[in-house]
Amino acid sequence: MCAKTSVAPLDRVKILLQAHNIHYKHLGVFKTLRHIVHKEKFPALYKSNGAQMVRIFPYAAVQFMSYEQYKKLMTNLLGQQSHVSKLIAGSCAGVTAVTCTYPLDMVRARLAFQVTGEHVYTGIRHTMRTIFHQEGGYRALYKGFSPTILGMIPYAGLSFYTFERLKLLLLEHFPSWCGSTNHSGTGLILNVPSKLLCGGFAGALAQSISYPFDVARRRMQLAEMMKEGHKFRTWYGTLAVVWRTHGVVAGLYRGMTINYFRAIPMMAVSFSTYEVMKQLLQLDTSVAKGS
């Protein structure tokens, strides 16, 4: 919650840049931050943070809980040493979490995209009711769901797999620097700085590969708020329009720089907290010595 609140201004800037908001589409990251404060006042940097807070609790809980369950299932099917099992388990966990909480992500995007003086929505409940009644019921709350799933499969799979793989490599090759012995003396656990390093790198790699699908998701979620929204009805059509209109860097990867600033520390803290909480609950996070 603290991590998400601290990067909330960057989250809003990312959404504004991804969807080329008419007021900010010609600005860079830092100019957009300054322009928001000048045009909409400082609290506008935290627009949609309430919806984000409501969403993040169930999202994180479902993601990490389901990852453990899927990992057990995949290990039983594919064996303890299989790398594919962690990749599949991570992907399934991400898909499960995003499916359960997607309408709140839709609400957050709509609230973040609107500019002071041009408000269409007044809060979480009003946004959800308006989308439901005016845009087609429950289906409308899942606009952009297809690219979200297509992006979540490599994103969640790679982030969990990379974290687990880096954890193993650090404890194998740098045990004195990166690890300490667990309570039973039979295994090694990562120290906190190493947890942060593994989590941050895992998040950066996963985001780099899946980011164009995130751009497509935002365009489809916000189609009703844009003049050319009719062009963003399908995920493949959306990707094609963005690529033809803006290219790769200014289109499919628009906002990627700011995404690194927000995602790397956020993922580092997220995975570190996950490991620390498991240790506090006396759940095994260690790697066997000499494995």
The coarse overall form would be: elongated
Structural class: mainly alpha
Instruction: Look at the structure and give the mean pLDDT.
Output: 90
Widest sheet: strand ordering: 1-2-3
| Helix content, binned percent | over 70%
3D architecture notes:
The chain is mainly α. It is built from twelve helices and three strands. Strands 1-2-3 form a three-stranded antiparallel beta sheet. A hairpin with a 5-residue loop joins strand 1 and strand 2. The two termini are 35 Å apart. The model has no long low-confidence stretch (mean pLDDT 90).
Task: Give a quick summary of the entry.
The chain contains twelve helices and three strands, in the order H-H-H-H-H-H-H-H-E-E-H-H-H-H-E.
Task: Please name the defining characteristics of this protein.
single chain, elongated, 3 strands, three-stranded antiparallel sheet, 291 residues
Topology diagram in text:
Elements: H1 2-6, H2 8-18, H3 29-40, H4 49-78, H5 83-113, H6 124-135, H7 145-173, H8 175-178, E1 179-181, E2 187-190, H9 192-221, H10 235-246, H11 248-252, H12 256-280, E3 287-288
Antiparallel strand pairs: 1-2, 2-3
Helix pairs in contact: 2-12, 4-5, 5-7, 7-9, 9-10, 9-12
